Amino acid sequence: MFIPFSSESIRYTGRFAEDCTNINDTPTMTATAPGSYFELAFRGDMCVLRFNIDFNTTPLPHLWIEVDGGAKVEVPLDRFIRLQAGEGEHTVKVTFKGVREIHHRWYHPLSGKVSFEGYDADAPGSLPEDNRKTIELVGDSITEGVLIDEDYRYFEEDQKNRQYQDDATATYAYLTAEALNLRPLNMGYGAVGVTRSGCGAVPKAAEAYPFCFDGAPVTYDHPDYILINHGANDRRGSEENYIREYKGLLDVVRSAHPTSKIICLSAFLGVFPTALKELINTYNREHNDNILFIDATLWVPPQPLHPARDGHRIIADKLTAILKKELSL
Asked: What are phi and psi of 170, to 5 degrees?
């Protein structure tokens, strides 16, 4: 039987929104931010995942798929993905691993998306509850996981290799969330900053923040924590403009989530950290807020701009230790 994307047997984590902008107006649950994932439970010995790939362009995004909490397997997105298991009730986790940065991920038609229609199985199952607190992870290509595995190249054109090289689940942000037992709500888009738009036509941070993509507001509950790391793509501009635009982002975030704990992590290569610290102190005084500032300057070397897996692990270890202490986690 076909179980639609709206079934109670499916749980979404991250920036998913309902969307039917495709050739046949088929309703889907769609994400354009890597690191977003969904889980489902089914009964039987087989499950066929149905994705809408209208308007997706090659190379297609890559996914991580886990069955019954086992090993993760990396697969390209496809119209149908068949999972075989022994007779019984099973769980499946599908994570948006990575995609070519320059695919359109904001305005329709979306070419760098994962659009889930539902699945075929004997019957839907029941997922165990996930009562973990949540942390929203807001950033740029580093938070997106770009070039974590830079050595995996096949095509001569750099961008065509990104689905092999990028992994949102291996970033400092995702690793920190896992270490603190928090559900990660990813929002990382390459080349985006507080002062500039980025790859895939994604607007600058404050304009993009309220949406999953154009016309699709974020609908999940207020995160318990919000981690912001913006600055790497603002380094060529003025300090004054950076601080002004960063304050604008804080205004948008705080307006959307009045009770969330905000953590501002400075850019790793050192972009106006002193001015950012002063901004946070002033913002806290003027708004009676308690935003936490963390200076992460040179936690890893400034080159490469995009850390590899070991670099992300170094950042995650430092950040985890600080957040455990500061937030009593």
From this structure: -110, 10
